Amino acid sequence: MRVTLTSLLLALVCLLGAGPAQAIEKIQPDAKAVTLITAFLKALQTPDEAARVKAVLPLLHKSMKTDDGQDLPGTVKRYSFKKASDNVKFYKVPAQIFEVHKGRTVTVGFKATAETGRTDKYFVQKNDGVAGRPAPLHVFFPADGGAPTLINIGSL
User: Considering only CA atoms, which of 23, 22, 40 is closest in space to residue 138?
Assistant: First the structure.
């Protein structure tokens, strides 16, 4: 009985202490972001890996690059970049956006790469006949009005 009462009280505290769930605000795609995503998908189709890295670097946020900005860190290259490169064949090029979830203002990066802006999730449509949900790519819009860049590419 004591365990049941304790469990009930704990559940009640969790339910009452939890704030309201934030609703996802769906917005229209920004043309610059769609162009960015299409360029990224096309760059990922480059057969040579070194040329592919060079092609995607201008499209990525500076926090996803090495300190000199000339390459991808090993962890990015081995995981999210590899996954995106392997899976680009499943997505429509030019990019077709299924939906966009508006993000909130955040600071991304650290020290020299830190930058404030908004990160939206752009869900990229798969090719016809390919199973699964559209994949989110995170597009970062700098608060200073600069060009958007990709901040998270590992979901393709």
Answer: 40
Quick one: tokens of 84? 């995106």
Query: Model confidence over 58-72: pLDDT tens digits?
Result: 999 999 999 999 999
pTM of the model: 0.85
**Do 91 and 127 form a contact (C-beta atoms < 8 A)?**
yes
Provide the angle, in degrees to the nearest 10, between the axes of the packed helices 31-44 and 49-56. Answer: 170
Which tokens sit at 115?
């930058």
Token pair for residue 36? Answer: 């960015």
Q: Where are the domains of the chain?
A: 24-152
